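Deliverable D5.2: sample structural annotation.
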Amino acid sequence: MRRILILAAGGHASVLHDVLFSLGSPPYGVIDRKLMAGDLWEDLTVLGDDDLLSTLSPEEFVLVNGLGASPDCAPRNALYARFRGKGFSFPPLKHPSAVFARNVVFEAGCQIMAGAVLQSGVVVGENSVVNTRASIDHHCRIGAGAFISPGAVLCGGVSVEEGAFIGAGAVLLPGVRVGEKAVVGAGSVVLQSVRGHSIVAGNPARRLRLLE
């Protein structure tokens, strides 16, 4: 069994720490550039910063991406890509309290938090997050590096493209497509598809601006 390291310490990482314990796979330590090697974080030893990983073997360690999104997913996705490129693997994580259909597809590095529900035909892309109590109905597709915040509701056939962010408590109606790197504000009700690289919010959701 390869040992598990959490990349980056913080709120999202703290939740993942608990997920790993719930799965009976406690992590070996944490990597964080803002903390000192030898410090304790969440009762885990800080082993060093990202440079330490250049001395470690992907054959001995697997990684968990501890960065969240707020709502920019780019730093989280860049961290993932950097260490995937160095040969490290990121196992999919599924909290034991999550409920999912037998044919849900979980790609590498995805994270499913406590109380999430994923129905038949859902595909959860690489390095994406389905956060606490989010509800993903049948045949939704969550793109690589997308982030579904706590309590969001995706009705059937919704597509969330690569790097998009869905805010807490947002509701997406059936068949809606959220384009690449778009942001849906918390509590929004999305009736129509959302252009990539844009921010929408409100009930009904309206476009506020385009992202650069």
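Annotation notes: The chain has two domains: 3-84, 93-201. Residues 93-201 form a domain with the UDP N-Acetylglucosamine Acyltransferase; domain 1 fold (CATH 2.160.10.10).
The annotation will be released with the project's public dataset once the embargo ends.
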